[in-house]
């Protein structure tokens, strides 16, 4: 739902400095009225909108549509066209107008703001890049979780991509979204939406967010300094939302087992301490490094199956077990970055099904990954603090206004 925000065009207050105003011209020169351009002539032939499938290439698409291979070679020979057309991905749309296999026109969007247009003329094919500007509008959303975060997000009109941004890029260091979410939790967002030719085409950046988890309120705002050195999400007091460790080492999924020192082992059928957290996920799901560090061990370890141990310094290590395989280049001593892919979910070792077993250890002692206190984040540098506080104050005031308006409009129980 769109919402008028305080302060005018607040969508850009944290990320786009105002542009300088051009001076008035010294004098105005009358111009002759322009002759309107002639209407564009639509190419003659059958129009086909083809959605790219997995493993498709342009050559395969032409064969499937029974289009001329000579026309394909001629099109790919145009300056800059081969690079633009070779990078097709599943879900992309390629529009072709043809007549009995002879191509008259080919269009393909190459970015949010550009379309490659190829047309046949008397002298052969010609290509041009057409500008399709994006308009950014500001929206807000509010939701209360009853069954799942995704269901609440859909009900609030928020895209899955934006909810993943909320969980993985903003609050993923404070909240384990696979484990900690419960009915009654709620969220408020102020975010950008992209529109083209008056049509909504997708969400963009979250500008401010609040998430209430089990009665505890978490808030964050986006801030980018004018010199480009600071860019990210921060708490209202200026602390970075990005900590040294993620709460969960994969995008949130259904959790099959919590930290439990008195857990009955499902295969051995006896009490055995379960000193970690299991994340049930499909085979091959990407596993991420919870923090910066070095690979301490990679290989097989008994019931753990394929396992990797990362050493993070300060006596902290993390363990990832039952993996189906390891990312390329993972070997002892290899440095890794937080969020880097280190392997993939599997069911090796003593596992009843595909899942990730994750442990967090301090000086060899197991800690509950869900509740262990993680090292604090550094505050925003002093040189940027005044600018941050001024801009964050505006967006947080708007977030509060959105909340008040939403709650006032909510029907009484």
UniProtKB/TrEMBL annotation:
CDD domains: M23_peptidase. GO terms for molecular function: metal ion binding; metalloendopeptidase activity; peptidoglycan binding. Coiled coil: none annotated. It comes from the Bacteria. The keyword Cytoplasm does not apply. Its cofactor is Zn(2+). Residues 18-43 are annotated as: Disordered. Residues 273-369 form the M23ase beta-sheet core domain. This is Peptidase M23. It comes from Sulfurifustis variabilis.
């Amino acid at each position: 739902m769109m919402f008028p925000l305080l302060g005018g065009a607040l969508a850009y207050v944290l990320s786009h400095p105002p542009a300088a105003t051009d001076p008035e011209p010294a004098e105005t020169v009358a111009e002759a009225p322009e002759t309107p351009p002639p209407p564009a002539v639509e190419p003659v032939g059958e129009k086909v909108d083809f959605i790219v499938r997995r493993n498709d290439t342009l050559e395969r698409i032409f064969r499937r549509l029974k289009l001329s291979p000579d026309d394909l070679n001629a099109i790919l020979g145009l300056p800059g066209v081969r690079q633009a057309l070779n990078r097709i991905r599943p879900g992309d749309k390629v529009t072709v107008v043809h007549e009995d296999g002879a191509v008259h026109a080919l269009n393909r969007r190459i970015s949010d703001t550009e379309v490659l247009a190829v047309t046949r003329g008397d002298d052969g094919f010609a290509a041009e890049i057409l500008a399709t500007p994006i308009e950014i509008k500001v929206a807000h959303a509010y939701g209360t979780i009853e069954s799942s975060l995704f269901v609440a997000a859909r009900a609030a009109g928020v895209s899955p991509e934006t909810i993943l941004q909320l969980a993985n890029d903003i609050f993923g260091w404070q909240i384990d979204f696979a484990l900690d979410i419960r009915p009654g939790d709620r969220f408020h967002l102020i975010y950008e939406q992209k529109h083209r030719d008056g049509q909504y085409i997708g969400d963009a950046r979250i500008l401010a967010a609040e998430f209430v988890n089990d009665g505890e309120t978490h808030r964050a705002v986006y801030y980018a300094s004018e010199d480009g050195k600071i860019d990210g999400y921060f708490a209202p007091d200026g602390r970075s939302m990005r900590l040294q460790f993620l709460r969960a080492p994969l995008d949130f999924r259904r959790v099959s087992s919590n930290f439990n020192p008195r857990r009955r082992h499902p295969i051995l059928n006896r009490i055995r301490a379960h000193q970690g957290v299991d994340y049930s996920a499909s085979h091959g799901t990407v596993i991420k490094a919870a923090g910066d560090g070095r690979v301490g061990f990679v290989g097989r370890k008994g019931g753990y199956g394929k396992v990797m141990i990362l050493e993070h310094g300060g006596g902290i290590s993390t363990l990832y077990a039952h993996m189906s395989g390891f990312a390329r280049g993972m070997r002892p001593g290899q440095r890794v970055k937080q969020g880097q892919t280190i392997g993939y979910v599997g069911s090796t070792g003593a596992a009843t099904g595909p899942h990730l077993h994750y442990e967090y250890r301090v000086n060899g002692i197991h800690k509950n990954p869900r509740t262990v206190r993680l090292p604090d984040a550094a505050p925003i540098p002093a040189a940027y603090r005044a600018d941050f506080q001024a801009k964050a104050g505006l967006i947080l005031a708007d977030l509060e206004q959105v909340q008040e308006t939403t709650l006032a409009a909510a029907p009484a129980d």
